From TrEMBL:
Source species of the chain: Actinomadura physcomitrii
Protein name (Swiss-Prot/TrEMBL): DUF1479 family protein
SUPFAM superfamilies: Clavaminate synthase-like (SSF51197)
Pfam families per the UniProt record, alphabetical: Gig2-like
Residue ranges of the region described as Disordered: 1-23, 417-444
Domain of life: Bacteria
Length: 444
């Protein structure tokens, strides 16, 4: 689609500026009212209405949602699937690359050998048991994952040998580089990130035993909360949604996304992730409380514009607020939830990836069959934002502390057998910013 242009011989006057708050405003309702009024005025100054701009996005998302629903009805696997061997050899079929771009999600078969993944799973069990984790465990440290009723389900463990070996593996680096390359990472004379270098973002593990009854996790997304509308960097990142050029919005454009702040909270992510992801440590059937997503990357435009419609109270962003994940609900987003699609069956060693803006959740399960174990490992390419966070990661790694993005639980500080700096390979050292070798992203 082509964006509207001004008639020949005329020029569009400058659009009104937007207020912005680089830290969370003290009076959230007042700030929401102010920024919504400014966004509406900016769209109007472009010569379009909010309803018109939203209608463009709604039609696009409707077509994608209908396609997902039809594929689901035919019994097809909505999630694209590729073999790790094809990523390593550079032979991923073009059809699958196009499917990844359209759906925003991927399953990588054989990312690790199954025996390696199962060994890592056993290693994590030994690591926690040797160090008395279950005696010391104080319950969930955040408001979101605590909702699954785990005892625990999400382990606040970051520095096991298994996790670090997987993070710094050449196989992981190849998959991350393949995924990063799907993004537009250079524009406006700036190289927004280095697609070939990951920042080794540390996250937790999940272990869910057979027989579990889990409430799952509701539909949500994780790139931010009110900061997506209220900070200068994100206002620039989503500029096409608010300046009359909505047809030019590209969910794969990294411009201005790699240098902005995020409002703090117990579920925040200070890093820029091109893809969220996890690596399976057990075999999992598709109907046993597994991940689902709304595989429509452009749905982010729908979510960003929906609060501006007149049926939403002026001090409300469709339920989005600070210190909570970004919720997706039947009340405000029923169209999007029509397109929910779960992952296919996976085996230990497979990895699962989804675009950082993709709506996702975890289905509930009763009397789970088999284990449901994963390591959370995203793609978080080297960029100014991730370089800053890497400094905090290095400190946490050195002391065995919980990383800054996560609750301050610090179980591993006294554990003698955690992964140590001497165990880092070249990829691990670069990912933590300990080695400067390699191409650095430009800043213009």
């Amino acid at each position: 689609m082509t964006a509207p242009t001004a008639p020949a011989g005329t020029s569009q006057p400058p659009l009104p500026p937007l207020p912005h708050w680089e830290e969370a405003p003290a009076d959230l309702p007042a700030a929401i009212r102010q920024v919504k009024a400014a966004l509406r005025a900016r769209i109007a100054a472009s010569g379009r209405t909010v309803e018109e701009v939203f209608g463009v996005v709604e039609r696009l998302v409707r077509a994608e949602a209908d396609d997902v629903a039809a594929a689901r009805a035919r019994g097809e696997t909505v999630w694209p699937v590729v073999d790790y061997a094809d990523i390593e050899a550079g032979t991923v079929p073009d059809e699958q690359v196009r499917a990844l771009h359209r759906r925003g999600c991927l399953v990588v078969r054989g990312h690790f050998h199954r025996e390696q993944a199962l060994e890592w799973d056993r290693d994590i069990v030994g690591y926690t048991e040797r160090n008395g984790f279950f005696d010391a465990y104080r319950g969930p440290g955040d408001d979101f994952f605590g909702s699954v009723g785990s005892k625990p389900e999400i382990y606040p463990i970051y520095w096991s040998r298994a996790q670090m070996q997987a993070r710094q593996s050449d196989r992981t680096a190849r998959v991350q580089a393949f995924l990063n390359a799907r993004w537009k990472h250079e524009s406006e004379g700036i190289r927004w990130f280095d697609p070939g270098r990951d920042s080794l973002y540390p996250d937790r593990i999940r272990r869910r035993p057979p027989g579990t009854a889990s409430g799952g996790l509701g539909a949500h997304l994780d790139p931010g909360t009110l900061d997506l509308w209220m900070t200068g960097a994100y206002q620039r990142a989503f500029r096409h949604l608010f300046d009359g050029t909505v047809e030019q919005y590209d969910p794969w454009d990294a411009a201005h996304r790699t240098d902005g702040p995020q409002y703090p909270g117990t579920t925040m992510c200070s890093a820029f992730r091109t893809f969220q992801g996890w690596t399976a440590l057990s075999d999992m059937e598709h109907d046993q409380g597994v991940l689902y997503a709304v595989p429509i990357p452009s749905a982010m435009a729908y979510l960003m514009l929906r609060p501006l419609l007149p049926d939403v109270p002026d001090d409300d962003m469709c339920g989005v607020t600070v210190n909570r994940v970004f919720p997706v609900s039947e009340r405000w987003h029923p169209l999007l939830l029509e397109a929910v699609a779960g992952i296919p069956d996976v085996r230990a060693g497979d990895s699962v990836w989804w675009h950082c803006d993709l709506i996702h959740g975890v289905a509930p399960v009763e009397d789970q069959k088999g284990w449901g174990n994963v390591m959370y490992i995203p793609a978080a390419p080297w960029c100014p934002r991730n370089e800053r966070y890497a400094a905090a990661v290095r400190e946490a790694f050195a002391t065995g502390s919980s990383p800054a993005d996560f609750p301050a639980e610090h179980y591993e500080r006294s554990w003698p057998d955690r992964f140590r700096p001497a165990d880092l390979n070249a990829t691990g050292r670069r990912g933590l910013g300990l080695d400067r070798a390699g191409t650095e992203p430009g800043r213009g």
